[in-house]
UniProtKB/TrEMBL annotation, chains A, B, C, D:
UniProt keyword DNA-binding, yes or no: yes
DNA-binding annotation, residue ranges on this chain: 24-43
Keyword Magnesium among record annotations: no
All copies of domain HTH tetR-type, residue ranges: 1-61
InterPro entries, alphabetized: Homeodomain-like_sf, HTH-type_Tx_Regulator, HTH_TetR, Tet_transcr_reg_TetR-rel_C_sf, YvdT_C
Name the UniProt record assigns to this protein: TetR family transcriptional regulator
Record Pfam families: TetR_C_26 (PF17934), TetR_N (PF00440)
Gene3D superfamilies to which the protein is assigned, alphabetical: Tetracycline Repressor, domain 2 (1.10.357.10)
Residues spanning the signal sequence: none
Length: 188, 188, 188, 188
DNA sequence: CATGAATGAGTTTTCATTCAT
DNA sequence: AATGAATGAAAACTCATTCAT
């Protein structure tokens, strides 16, 4: 794996373990097994790794959705699979997603967000469009709806770690609630 | 305004301007026009201001909801008013909610989130309970639903500044999309 | 002595001992007996101390000239005293003067040079003007002549350390050569 | 142009642009369009380029003097030509002479100065000796006088860029002042 | 000879925290 | 309670130097 990749992966791990605030570049390079100076060959600062992480996360989420959604399935099944994927990846990137989001908004990289998330939104809005064409759901603006659903699912997935006696059962319940919520929101 | 208030307000501004990471206590005291040492008479650290900010925001949101919701109205009207309130306050505290969320989750203060947001969630879940009792919406877990709706509305409101050619018309459209989404999600 | 003064004095000493290149800010603060961070309260970098040193050197030179020149004396005597003062101070600031000069030209402080040296040039050009008024020397542009003489004397004083078997006798010879050179250059 | 030459030229440029202190070897190689490691095949350090630069400048100056001085001319004419050459080359190497001087004195290379400048001084002191033999000027130590004159001329030429509203007219005036100064200093 | 990515020791720089006033 | 200059530990950052290609 090339050095840049190593840095990004190490950064994800360390940010998760220690939070952004407490993370030192020396922690990242230690985990990445590279020299201190090598970091600066690829990124000018700790925060500038954020967009790269966000990209990875968005790509991972899109990939998870593509993989888990069975297009043979009926729309509600597809929707459940899609939301499941969002929950899975949000869990994988637990804490990091929030930090990345806050880290991005703190920099001049905010505008990159749109670009980073576009493929993910495209994938989901295509699914919605398809369902609509098939006459299975009510008519909406597919792109906007895609963003609402992903926002809702992410927010719901993150809430678990904040509020609840956090266990697998609770996670399933929360996910099921989102499923029901969205299915009702879209049905004809 | 007393010094504590001055600190909180200054902190909101500089967190918004620079992000959490880049904010120094010296920035906060400069904006608050107090001496460096005075900060420590009120807060032990930068991040410990976060719960105070969260409290302000949550209280403001609850108050906005209480003020704007007319209980004489039918449920869809009340819902629209409630979501409108969330949009208004998220706009007021633009970016801050994300930062607060990240700031809290970066520390031991995470557990305070539950406590801080409880009154707000109670207010909204009471509304939902009432609608359910009146048989106007389908049956759900009102508390969980309340959190989903608020999460959805906040996420949608924040997205505006991130993604879109941000203008008043766009904001109205986004808000209307959330209204429709939630109304369909809850209707019988 | 206040901290800023302490830094300037320490910097002069350390620059002389080690040269600019090898001087660390930690050397300066050690010699100044202040904390590392205190340096940055007064100067943003090592090089930014340069103009302050140049100021001290120019002021010291002007003072030395004022003190050593006896206005009762005939002009050649005054001139010898003046050149002696330049030699003395250049010796005092041995090496540093060159470094300061090179250090200044490397920064954006070059334009300050004019201002820093102005009082010194004024003092010397006043002397020259007076001699001219008394009809003791030929007519020249006093200000320009002042700069030529100081440049010549400094250059000659610095050459000693570079070229010659450097000893007191050699210094006296060199100084005497400058005296003769300038006296002949100015006589009627 | 071979690599060694490329390095020397690039070094002159970046030393002039950034000063010695701020110049990195990476700046030099970038300007020279060679690889980082290649530098070390020719020079062991940044400062070790200095003697090479000094040599170039001294050789250039000697050559300029030889070329411009017409030995058929009377001594004042020759002197004017010689000083003109010093001004021309100091202009060509603007700022560099100071930097070289500081750069050499900052290292063990100081002693090389004598050797590097010897041919230049020899040329000028030969001229002075000749004038003396012809009985055209007063008796002095020709070698010492040569160094005084060159030091004076260089200092005067450098001053132009530092102090004055720098233009061609100003340069001519300054040069003329030096001519007059030296002619008076040497005449019988 | 030439390259340039990688290194890591050495410095600079930051900034939360203290404490005498 | 309030101040803000001073501190120094800790972190960021630099850049000369190496070495496998």
């Amino acid at each position: 794996m090339d050095k840049r990749e190593r840095i990004i992966h190490a950064a994800i791990e360390v940010f998760r373990e220690n939070g952004i605030e407490k993370t030192k570049i020396s922690d990242i390079v230690k985990k990445a097994q590279i020299a201190q100076g090598t970091f600066y060959l690829y990124f000018p600062s700790k925060l500038s790794v954020m967009p790269a992480i966000a990209e990875k996360m968005a790509a991972r989420m899109e990939e998870a959705i593509r993989q888990s959604v069975n297009t043979e399935n009926i729309w509600t099944g597809q929707l459940r699979e899609m939301i499941g994927a969002v929950f899975t990846v949000t869990d994988e990137y637990r804490d990091v997603s929030t930090l990345v989001y806050a880290g991005l908004s703190a920099t001049e990289h905010v505008r990159e967000w749109e670009e980073i998330y576009r493929p993910l939104y495209m994938t989901v809005s295509s699914m919605i469009e398809e369902w609509e064409l098939q006459g299975e759901i009510r008519e909406t603006d597919p792109h906007r709806t895609a963003r609402l659903i992903i926002g809702l699912a992410e927010s719901a997935a993150e809430q678990i770690y904040l509020f609840d006696s956090f266990d697998a059962a609770e996670e399933r319940k929360q996910q099921e609630a989102v499923n029901e919520f969205v299915i009702h929101a879209l049905r004809k």
